Protein: Chromosome partition protein Smc
Organism: Sphingomonas telluris
Amino acid sequence: MRIRRLKLSGFKSFVEPSELRIEPGLTGVVGPNGCGKSNLLEAIRWVMGEGSPKSLRGGGMDDVIFAGTATRPPRDFAEVSILIERNRTDDGGLSGESEVTRRIERGAGSAYRLDGRDVRAKDVSLLFADAATGAHSPALVSQGKVGSIIAAKPTERRLLLEEAAGISGLHARRKDAEQKLRATETNLTRLAELLSDQE
Ligand code: ATP
């Protein structure tokens, strides 16, 4: 999977609609302190499903919305889209381009779209997990991350390896399957009870 384009509107310091094309090869973002370089990386993590405001340097998720300045009023929403190029191996499906969008309205939470269709947060996180990437991908190295990996517990490091190996999506599906299995077992037990009552 490759990110081809990033679009932001009202996200942190990117108040005006902004578009960045990410060409093949190495991309560098340079600029003075506080110009928004880290905000760009956070926008990518956010649209991939980041659920922790703290890891986006905020107190609540609404803090990703442009908060206003002395000369500009705050915004009521933030929206980030990424255009991704999928490889055939990402999920066993067809290759091609897809656009993932996340939008948050102040006080009303956020919603996702995949190629214009409303989808669940879980669908988006599975899409990225199957391609061995996502909001917690070790490929997205934010400030302080290297130190935290050195200090991490073995179980936390294992999660990083599982994400890199692209198997974290399988864990989520296994949990779903186990829940369905338990519900089916309960139904079977109930059915056996009803049958024995009728005999
Ligand atoms: P450095 O080089 O120092 O790490 P940087 O280029 O990575 O800086 P960022 O940390 O991405 O800069 O951006 C910080 C700027 O974003 C600050 O000016 C901050 O006021 C602004 N900012 C963060 N959240 C919001 C928000 N919700 N609304 C408006 N501006 C915001």
Remarks:
- The chain has a mean pLDDT of 89.
- The radius of gyration is 21 Å.
- The domain at 2-137 is CATH 3.40.50.300 (Rossmann fold).
